[in-house]
Amino acid sequence: MDLAASGDSSAVNLSVEDIYGGDYKLPTGGLLKGSLTASFFAKAGRSEEKPAAGDVLQALTVMVAQNICQLAYLNSLLQKTERVVFTGNFLRHNKIAQETIARNMRAASLAQSSGQEMQALFLTHEGYFGAIGSLLHKADAKQVVHSTRLSEEAASPGKRR
Questions:
Q1: Helix runs in the chain, H state only
Q2: What is the pLDDT of residues 50-71, one digit of tens each?
Q3: 8 Å CB contact between 47 and 14
Q4: How far apart are CA 13 and CA 7, in angstroms?
Q5: What is the mean pLDDT of residues 27-52?
Q6: Are 100 and 65 in contact (CB under 8 A)?
């Protein structure tokens, strides 16, 4: 992540400003900021010179974060929720991804007609939330008993039921 932090994704990504020379006014009246990415890695193949590793890593990190944000945002609209909690190893100690998700979540929600700001939340100690959530979501009484029985059998391998 240190190498990505030192990079400049605008060196490999094509922005709205690169295409239109600045911000772009939509026919609906909305505005696309010139700094928005229009195409990831579009500039990377235009030159014979190989792009810097930090630039590529930052562009890749931002691309993944924006896709995570878009999926989470659309699902939050479907579920009618105002807060989205993000967890996982990709986000742990990844300020680039966290800032990208928070900025894009805020911008996408404020662009809606309701203007209600949607919050992206990041937890500090979230290492086991995925496993606990999966257990709570999928576990039924038989699975829990079965898991307990397996643990008991592992503790005393000589006993058979």
A1: 2-5, 16-20, 53-79, 95-110, 129-138, 141-155
A2: 999 999 999 999 999 999 999 9
A3: no
A4: 12
A5: 86
A6: yes
